[in-house]
Here is the input.
Amino acid sequence: QVQLVESGGGLVQAGGSLRLSCAASGRTFSFLSMGWFRQAPGKEREFVARVSRSGDSTSYADSAKGRFTISRDNAKSTVYLQMDSLKPEDTAVYSCAAAVVSNNWISWGQGTQVTVSS
Here is the structure.
C-alpha cells in the first residue's frame, strides 16, 4: 500500500502560481507512475497530469497544457505540480495518485484545496 500526502494548496489570484507537492511512503517510489487529478464542486474528478516512473515521460489534460508542469524527485519520493497562469476555473481539490500498472490508480491522497480568485 502507498500512502500519499499532498501539500501546497491555497488561495491565489488569477494569473498567479502555486506548486503542489505529494509525498509518498510505503512502497518503492520509483516503481510507481504518478498522477494529479482534481475535482471541482458539483463536478466529477478529472485527470490533470501524469508522469512516468523515471520522470522522462509526461502527459497532460488539454486544460493543463502549457500552464502546468508535473515532475518528480525519486530521491525524495515526491511528485510536484507547478501551476502557472491560474484561472478561476482551476479551483478544485487536487489529489495525487499512484499506479503500478499504467493508469490503474491504486492509491489516492486526501487532496489539497486550490482556490483561484478573479
Summary: The CA atoms of residues 86 and 109 lie 22 Å apart. The first strand starts at residue 3 and ends at 7.
